Amino acid sequence: MDEKKIFSLTTEVLRNNRIATKGISYKGCFILDAESATDNKISDEVVRYPHRIETFFLMICKQGEGSVNVNLQEYEISDNSLFFNLPNSIIQVNHKGKNTQGVILGFDEELAREMNFDIKHILPIALALKEQPVMEITKEQTDQLISLIKNIAYEIQSSKEEPFHDEIIRNYFTLFFYKLCSIMTLNLPEQSPAESSIKSRNEEYFQRFMQLLNENYKRERSLGFYASQLCITPKYLTTLIKRVSGRSAAEWIDRYVVLEAKNLLRYSTMSIQEVAYELNFPNQSFFGKYFKHQTGYSPSAYKMLK
Q: Which DSSP letter does residue 253 get?
């Protein structure tokens, strides 16, 4: 890539992309229907190179083979599988077959907020998707999801002058996302009632912590900063986050910083010093020691890895 930084894709960029214009767009979303071999170029053009996707991005594969690289981890895509990207992940999609069929749906956080989801139901799914963004589902579930998306597309294309046009579309989206959450929940590993009860009491803190982390990890690595923003002690923050996610707050901070550093070192043309400054380290030496402690590699050695 020629850019100093990894190129980012927002919902608006994807909607206006010369390939994406073959699809259907509505406010904060777009839908691409890849039902033939010639349509494979849609996702190839959008994410054929590593991009930071700053929006929710769902691919439902009805038929075909491929792989998706998400934050330096590769996952296989096959018949009846779905890939769900959480905002700010860096992804690259590779097709392996010529007859890929499926649907791509992208939507931004504003549209997601309009759905009025109960966060208690969504958070366990979001946590699981961070660890395993590709999920195998049944053929029946694949057909159900694609059918709902096509219903949304039909309503979007209908006359905007029809009464309750926006309300109908919004409620179709709500129906689709609850169905999606239902299917993903059925395919997630089961938790014991005790584990579920312990986590549910602290999910709101975890949600607020992750939001703060997503907004500030390039500038703030101090546990004290996040604890003060949440009006609790660092020790209590660590305990809460560990209970919900299985990782301490400090581990989450390091995970975000190291992942960003790895992506910048591998995919951008930034120098090591520029990466250090981008992540608010006082100098290259301090960044190098931190990176090696976390990964076992110096930044220069990691940059040379294939």
A: H
Overall pTM surpassing 0.85 (yes/no): no
Judged on CB neighbours under 10 Å (0-12, 13-18, 19+), 123 is buried
Strands (E), 197-282: none
Neighbours of 68 (CB within 10 A): 22
The residues, any chain, with a CB within 8 Å of residue 273's CB and separated by 6 or more, are 284
11-33 pLDDT, tens digit each:
666 656 544 456 787 877 888 87
Residue for token pair 């989450």: 252
Which of 53, 59, 73 has the alpha carbon at shortest distance from 6? Answer: 53
Burial 230-258 (b: 16+ CB within 10 A, else e): bebebeebbebbbbbbeebbbebbbbbbb
Cα–Cα distance, 35 to 212 (Å, whole number): 39
Q: Please report which helix (H) or strand (E) contains residue 41, including its range.
A: helix 41-47
